[in-house]
Structure formats: C-alpha cells, structure tokens
Amino acid sequence: MSILHIFLIAVGLAADAFAVSVAEGVALRKVTREDTLRVALYFGAFQAAMPVVGWLAGHSLRSVVESYDHWVAFGLLMLIGGKMVADALFGFGTAEPRSPSRGGRLIMLSIATSIDALAVGMSLAMLRVRIWTPAVIIGVVTGLLCATGIQMGDRIGSRLGRWAELGGGTILCFIGARILTEHLL
To answer: Of 39, 67, 128, 137, which residue is least crowded by CB atoms under 10 Å?
Structure first.
C-alpha cells in the first residue's frame, strides 16, 4: 500500500473528527492553545490507536465489532450534539463554558470519531499491511486537521454566538445519524 493511499485513508478517517473539532471550537467560545493542543492530541492519538487495536484483533473479532460500532458512535454523537442544541436553545450564556479539551467529553468524542479506524485496522491486517506507518500517518493527519478545525470553530463561534453552537450541535447529530444509516444500509 502506497503512502498516498494511506494519506487518503487518513484524510477520510479524520473527516468526522475535523467536523467535531469545528463544532467544539464553536461551543467553547474562546479557544486557547492548550485547548487546541489537547483536542489535536486526543483525536490524533485515538485515530492512531484504533487501527492498531483493529489490526491486532484481526479478522476474528471483525463481525462482533461491526455489529455494534455504529450504535456506539451514533449514541455518543447524539448525546453530545443534543446537549449543544439544548444549550443553544435554552441556556446559552447562563453557565460557564465547558471545555471540550478536558475530561470525559473529549474521550467520548475521540472514541466516537475513531471507531471507523478500528475497521480500517482490521482490513489492513487482512491485506497483510504492517500497521505502524499507517497508524502514525492517520494520527498525525487527524491531529493537524483537528487543530485547524477547533481554531476555525473558534472564529465562527465568536462571530455567530448561539447560532453557531446550535449549528455545531446539529452537525454532530447529523454525523451520528449518517454513521448509523451508512452501517444499517
């Protein structure tokens, strides 16, 4: 498998994480360097680790994981996106902004956006591709795109306020629904 193919796979895998990073930048309202670094590192690390886990699991667990991975991603994204929509509609500005770059929220988003990388790792195992180079490329590409995404979201959010948070939450819900429908159809 060529580096170009791996890079294209990495960009495809990073698309959801990028969209989530934009939405989180919108929700945060004020993004710091530390926020950007944490989001890029978490998303990048999870995207790099999941293909390794999938590769190690190989073909034997593929059918088990594929039977519920889309439900996990759907549930996590709907939960987080729904909360953003509710905050935008009913409570914007009434509480301290929560940081997407800390705690369980960041871990949940990292898992939800990297589950598809698990299947890619399984596929690479079946193709007998060594996993380390693809994992590093996937992680780096995801990290860079997410750092860019959260900064873009910050700029959009500072201009559009509650409407940007509403849009960001709606996007997360649509991403979750798209993941579910792609797997069910």
So the answer is: 128
